[in-house]
Design a protein that fits this description.
This is Pyrophosphatase. There is one protein chain. The chain starts with a helix and ends with a helix. 79% of the residues lie in helices and 0% in strands. The chain is mainly α. The protein has one domain: Helix Hairpins, CATH 1.10.287.
Length: 108
């Protein structure tokens, strides 16, 4: 799936969620929601690694929770990018993939 299509689907889910729960997605909401999700990711990571209460969850459940929280963070990064009109593909290309291009050229 292309990133633009993925972002479109994530936006649709987020919009429906915000309408259902009467959440106003104002500009600050996107970054604050990302921060909230980072906290949840951190908590689930610590639980999975044995550095937090496991709440009687199995290793498999802890791993699944971690993966879901990671997905939440990823999706909220994309929502933040979209809400600020960031071409995330271009930004990643300029910030990260220029290094990849340099490294692969150097190996030749």
């Amino acid at each position: 799936m292309e990133i633009v299509e993925l972002m479109r689907k994530i936006e649709a889910v987020s919009l429906r969620y915000s309408k259902k729960y009467k959440i106003k997605r104002e500009p600050n909401w996107f970054v604050l929601k990302l921060q909230e999700e980072m906290g949840e990711l951190t908590q689930s990571y610590l639980m999975m690694k044995g550095s937090g209460r496991h709440k009687n969850k199995s290793k498999g459940e802890l791993r699944s929770d971690f993966e879901k929280e990671l997905a939440d963070v990823f999706c909220h990064v994309l929502l933040l990018a979209k809400s600020n009109k960031v071409d995330i593909e271009r930004a990643v290309d300029e910030k990260w993939l220029t290094w990849y291009k340099k490294y692969t050229k150097a190996k030749k």
